[in-house]
Amino acid sequence: MVNRAAHEQSTLERPKIAPSSVDVPSVRLEVIAGPDAGAEVTIDPSLPGRVYAGKSEACQLRLTDPLVSRRHFAIELDGARARITDLESKNGTTVNTVPIAEAFLHGGELVRAGDTTIAVRFGAVVSARLHAGTRFGRVIGASPEMLKLYPICERLALSDVPVILEGETGTGKELLAEAIHEASPRASGPFVVFDCTTSPPSLMEAKLFGHERGAFTGAVSTRPGVFEEAAGGTLLIDEIGDLDVALQAKLLRAVQSGQVQRIGGAQWLKTNVRILAATRRDLEREIQEGRFRDDLYYRLAVARVELPPLRRRRGDVAILAAHFWAALSAGQPMPADFSARLLDYAWPGNVRELYNVVANRVALGELADMNDVLRPPATPGGASARDLIDDVVARGLSFPQARHHVLSAFEERYVDVMLAKFGNNISKAAAASGVARRYFYTVRARHGR
Question: Whole-number mean pLDDT of the chain?
């Protein structure tokens, strides 16, 4: 017997909603002034992610201008236009002499970075074919942004090269890593995750490489590290941008040599693992600031996959919400007012936030307070504290709800500032904040930092 409600929800995930192709303009970036005059790059509409311009070897438009950052700006196709984003470059980006953080391009603009001027040329509209399915493993989505991603992931799954997965917190990097593992020849082997944000710095090396009995106080027995645990399978190093610089050197040696040495051990042990790394950080900026080793980056970034934020995945909110609802609600139909509310939100927490919101509504039903669950969009960088408070007060929330939103925004900003000030050293940031390290960890994790 077919459950009608579940059947209606499942139709939202069927391949028929996925476009077979997308019409986009051909876009060419041409350097017309500066040290690299004459250099150019054409954006391939069939490839996922953004085109980067900067000094890094990983940038598609590589510049030698000393005033340009490693990753200075990025451009991505967005329907009939292109979106340019300044990547917090040191000297900024301008479009037709106007400084921008983000802007839309329609062709004919002049982009300036440092002493370099780049002309944006729009050409004829081309039709880019898209992947036929609406999922890769358990990664679901039918937006053009995701359909461009799946063929790349399928190819990478069949290889054994290291891959860096980039994306904001909550975009599904770990889920994608597991999907790559499950589609690979190593699928019968273990999938092990090492999270660089959850292990105390004093124990990180032991968890990575293992230790012998008596190697340090508390080492009452010999324990293998994650490289040994993942033998024959895949090791995901999650949030690798948070790994201590000293440990980065040891990780590089392990990746290069295919061997590890336990703490307190004299023997080198051969490893047989496929390395995936995930990060919410811009590792190019971390390299520029001296917080990440460029040799480790290039060893791991044999391939890069950038997961788009949910707010850029056109149409995927409805598909994902229906999928989560069907999995959590035991066949109950999704309320129309709830689904409509989901579409009118920016999703700063991405897919993880969407799942939590659906789970909250399933659990509490009509008692769920959507004003409390759906956080107000983050204020722009130039917005003042008064702007935020006025916005929260104007929404007519109860006093506890309004206080929660303002306190949450304060905590998020404070943690970001303190981590940046102390080079992501949690112990120093906590000490300077006047709170226990465990409490700082808790606040940091609450805001996905």
Answer: 84
- Residue 447 or residue 50, greater confidence: 50
Cβ-Cβ contacts under 8 Å for 81 (sequence gap 6 or more): 104, 105, 106
Task: Give residue-wise pLDDT tens across range 5-61.
Answer: 333 333 333 334 566 777 788 899 999 999 999 999 999 888 888 999 999 999 999
Decide: 247 and 209 in contact? Cβ < 8 Å.
no
Contact 211, 252 (CB under 8 A): no
CA-based nearest residue to 93, from 76, 72, 78:
72
Torsion sign, CA atoms 154, 75, 102, 294: positive
For residues 110-133, average pLDDT: 88
d(CA 85, CA 105): 11
pLDDT band at 72 (very low <50, low <70, confident <90, very high): very high
Residues in the chain: 449
Q: Is the pTM of this model over 0.70?
A: yes
What's the half-sphere exposure (Cβ side, CA atoms, 13 Å) at 35?
13
User: Which tens digit of pLDDT belongs to each residue from 279-288?
Assistant: 999 999 999 9
Confidence of residue 435 (pLDDT cuts 50, 70, 90): low
Q: What is the 3-state secondary structure (H, E, C) of the chain?
A: CCCHHHHHHHHHHCHHHCCCEEEEEEEEEEEEECCCCCCEEEECCCCCCCEEEECCCCCCEECCCCCCCCCCEEEEEECCEEEEEECCCCCCEEECCEEECEEEECCCCEEEECCEEEEEEEEEEEEEECCCCCEECCEECCCHHHHCHHHHHHHHHHCCCCEEEECCCCCCHHHHHHHHHHCCCCCCCCEEEEECCCCCHHHHHHHHHEECCCCCCCCCCCEECHHHHCCCCEEEEECHHHCCHHHHHHHHHHHHHCEECCECCCCCEECCCEEEEEECCCHHHHHHCCCCCHHHHHHHCCEEEECCCHHHCCCHHHHHHHHHHHHHCCCCCCCHHHHHHHHCCCCCCHHHHHHHHHHHHHHHHHHCCHHHHCCCCCCCCCCCHHHHHHHHHHCCCCHHHHHHHHHHHHHHHHHHHHHHHCCCCHHHHHHHHCCCHHHHHHHHHHCCC
Give φ, ψ of 423 to 5 degrees. Answer: 55, 35
Q: How many CA atoms lie within 13 A of 257 on its CB side?
A: 12
Q: How confident is the model at residue 385, as a pLDDT?
A: 55
